[in-house]
Design brief:
With 540 residues, the protein is of the alpha+beta class. 41% of the residues lie in helices and 15% in strands. Helix 3 packs across helix 4, helix 4 runs parallel beside helix 5 and helix 17 packs across helix 18. The chain starts with a strand and ends with a helix. GO terms for molecular function: asparagine synthase (glutamine-hydrolyzing) activity.
Length: 540
C-alpha cells in the first residue's frame, strides 16, 4: 500500500512515506512506486501535479503548501489540533493514523455525509480534520494555525472540432490503448459484469496485454443475476476463462463495518462487496485493474436533457429537500460548502451541466478513488480510467458522444461487435431518450418485471424480515433483505449515539423502523456507517 504521512515537529516537516520522491520546481513531489513523473510540456508545479498521480509539498517561511492531482489518487487528510490543546499538525493518506488525536463531531459534516455520502469540499465528520478535494491546494500558516483549501484548476478542457463517429472512436481507443499497454506481462485480476466498463476493459486487455494472465470474478446475491450471465458471455466471446462467482453473504456486510472507519466516512458499509471478494481470493501476487472513475470520465452523468442551472442540479435538490431535518444554522453551513463545489466550475465549459461536473470532480474522487485506495491494502491497484491523457481527450469531445457513456457503446459496437449488456442505465431508465441497446418493447418488459419483483419483495420483507425473498436477477445486491437482518442488533446503540452523543435530530429514521424500500435500507446503511465511525474515534 502506498502511504504518505507528514508531521510538523519543531517547525520542521517530517515525512514518513514509501512513495518515490523527486524535487521539482522547489517542491518535494511524491509519487507511486514503479512509476515515473512525466514533465513533458510542464512549465510549473501545477502542470506537474495535473498530469501525474502525485502529492507536491513545500514549506516556506511560516507556510506549508500541499497540492494533489485531479483524481484524488492519494486521499489526503489534514489534522489541525485546536490551539487550546496543542500545536499538532498532521497530513496523512491513511485515516486510521488519526487514532489518538483529539476529535470532535462536526455536525454539518455529519449531515453532509448522510445527504451526499461524503463531506462537501474539504469538510469531514470531524471538526479537526479536513480532506483535500481533487485538484486543490492546501495552505497552512504555522503561526496563525489557519488552513485554507482552494482550487488550482477548474477542470475546463476546450471543446475540439470533431464530427465523425469513427474519428471519435479512433481517438479515444488510441489513448486507452497506450494506457493498457503498460499492463503487458502483468498478472492481473478484475471484476467483470455485463456493463460497459468491464467489457471495454477486457477488450483493451485482449488487444494490448495478456488476457490469459487475467483472473476475473463477479459477485452478487445469487448466481442467477444478469451481471453474471453477461460476464460469462463476455469472457467466452473474448476467449478468456469464465469469471469466478462470489456470493455475497451477511458476512460481507458485517465485515464491511471497517470501511467507514478506514475512509473517514467516505465509503459506507453497503459498498463492501468488492473489498470482501478481494480479501477472500488468493491474489496477493496479482495487480487489480479497477475500472473506477470510468463513470466520471466517460459520461455516466452527461445528460442530453440536463438544465445548466445549479439550482436545478441533483446536489442542490438534495440540499433543498433537507430529508434528514438539519437545522437552519447547519443548512447554511452546508449551502456554503455546496457553493464552493459549484462555484469552481467555469461559466463556459464542455460539461452538459452541474450534474456531470460535480459527479466528475467531487463524487468520483471522494468515493471511487478512496475505495480503490482501500483495495491497495490487499494488492497493487491500477486505475486505467483515472489518467489525465484520457480525461483531456474525452471531455474535449462534443457532449453527444458522452451522453450516458455513449462513447463506450460506440467503441464496443463498431470496433468489437455489440452484444447485449446489463448496464445500469438500461434498468434505471436513463437511456429512454436514446435506446442504444434494446427496443423499447424489450426495455419496458424487463423494466416492469424488475418493478414487480421489487414490490413482491417489499411485501415479503414485512412478513419474514428478509429471510426469504424472490431472487431478482436485475440487481447485484439485495440491500433491502440484508440491512435489517444484519444490523438490527446495531440500531439501538447507533441511534442513541447519533441522537444523544453527537446531537443529530433525524426525521424519517430507518433505525427506528423496518425498511420496506431499498432507499430506506440505503439510508440505514449511511446512518450505521456514521455511527461506527464516531464510535471508533470519539466515543471512549
Amino acid at each position: 500500500m502506498d502511504i504518505f504521512g507528514a508531521k510538523l515537529i519543531d517547525d520542521e516537516l517530517v515525512v514518513d512515506t514509501n512513495l518515490q520522491h523527486a524535487n521539482i520546481y522547489g517542491y518535494d513531489v511524491y509519487f507511486k512506486n514503479n512509476s515515473r513523473i512525466s514533465d513533458n510540456d510542464c512549465s510549473d508545479i501545477i502542470e506537474i501535479v495535473k498530469k501525474n498521480h502525485c502529492i507536491a509539498i513545500r514549506k516556506y517561511d511560516s507556510n506549508i503548501e500541499i497540492l494533489n492531482d485531479p483524481f484524488g489518487y492519494f486521499p489526503i487528510y489534514i489534522y489541525v489540533e485546536p490551539s487550546t490543546s496543542g500545536n499538532m499538525f498532521l497530513i496523512d493518506t491513511v485515516f486510521e493514523n488519526f487514532h489518538g488525536c483529539k476529535l470532535t463531531a462536526d455536525i454539518a459534516g455529519a449531515y453532509e455525509n448522510l445527504m451526499y455520502s461524503s463531506g462537501l469540499w474539504d469538510r469531514t465528520p470531524f471538526n479537526e480534520i479536513k480532506q483535500m478535494p481533487a485538484a486543490t491546494k492546501a495552505l497552512f500558516n504555522t503561526i496563525e494555525r489557519k488552513l485554507k483549501v482552494e482550487s488550482y484548476w477548474d477542470f475546463k478542457i476546450p471543446l475540439i472540432d470533431i464530427t465523425s463517429e469513427d474519428e471519435v472512436i479512433d481517438k479515444v481507443w488510441s489513448v486507452l490503448s497506450e494506457i493498457y499497454k503498460k499492463y503487458k506481462n502483468m498478472s492481473l485480476v478484475m471484476g467483470i459484469s455485463g456493463g460497459l466498463d468491464s467489457r471495454l476493459s477486457m477488450c483493451l486487455l485482449k488487444e494490448n496485454a495478456d488476457l490469459y494472465k487475467l483472473k476475473t470474478f463477479t459477485f452478487g446475491h445469487y448466481k442467477g443475476i444478469k451481471d453474471y450471465k453477461y460476464a460469462i458471455e463476455t469472457a467466452k466471446r473474448l476467449g478468456a476463462e469464465a469469471p469466478e462467482f462470489i456470493k455475497l453473504s451477511d458476512d460481507t456486510y458485517s465485515d464491511a463495518v471497517s470501511l467507514p472507519i478506514k475512509s473517514g466516512g467516505n465509503v459506507g458499509i453497503n459498498h463492501g462487496h468488492a473489498y470482501f471478494c478481494l480479501k477472500q481470493m488468493d491474489i496477493k501476487s496479482k495487480t487489480l485493474i479497477s475500472n473506477y472513475y470510468s463513470d466520471g470520465v466517460m459520461g455516466y452523468d452527461c445528460r442530453p436533457s440536463d438544465v445548466d442551472d445549479y439550482l436545478k442540479c441533483d446536489y442542490y435538490h438534495i440540499f433543498e429537500s433537507n430529508f434528514y431535518n438539519a437545522s437552519p444554522e447547519i443548512l447554511e453551513i452546508i449551502r456554503n460548502d455546496l457553493m464552493k463545489v459549484i462555484s469552481r466550475r467555469a461559466k463556459s465549459d464542455n460539461y452538459s451541466g452541474y450534474n456531470e461536473y460535480i459527479y466528475l470532480t467531487e463524487r468520483n474522487p471522494k468515493f471511487h478513488m478512496k475505495l480503490s485506495y482501500l483495495y491497495s491494502e490487499l494488492l497493487d491497484v491500477e486505475l486505467p480510467f483515472a489518467e489525465y491523457s484520457l480525461l483531456q481527450v474525452v471531455i474535449s469531445l462534443p457532449q453527444k458522444y458522452r451522453y450516458y457513456k455513449k462513447i463506450e457503446h460506440l467503441i464496443l459496437e463498431k470496433r468489437i461487435g455489440l452484444f447485449e449488456d446489463v448496464s445500469s442505465t438500461r434498468y434505471a431508465g436513463l437511456d429512454k431518450e436514446e435506446n442504444y441497446w434494446t427496443s423499447k418493447t424489450a426495455y419496458n418488459i424487463k423494466y416492469v418485471h424488475m418493478l414487480l419483483l421489487n414490490r413482491c419483495n417489499a411485501i415479503l420483507k414485512l412478513i419474514n424480515n428478509g429471510k426469504v425473498m424472490m431472487p431478482n436477477p436485475y440487481i447485484t445486491e439485495n440491500h433491502l433483505a440484508v440491512f435489517d437482518r444484519c444490523f438490527d442488533k446495531d440500531k439501538k446503540w447507533a441511534d442513541e449515539l447519533l441522537y444523544d452523543t453527537i446531537g443529530l435530530a433525524i426525521k424519517n429514521n430507518p433505525l427506528k423502523q423496518k425498511c420496506i424500500r431499498t432507499a430506506d435500507a440505503d439510508r440505514g446503511f449511511e446512518l450505521i456507517s456514521l455511527a461506527y465511525l464516531y464510535r471508533e474515534y470519539i466515543v471512549e
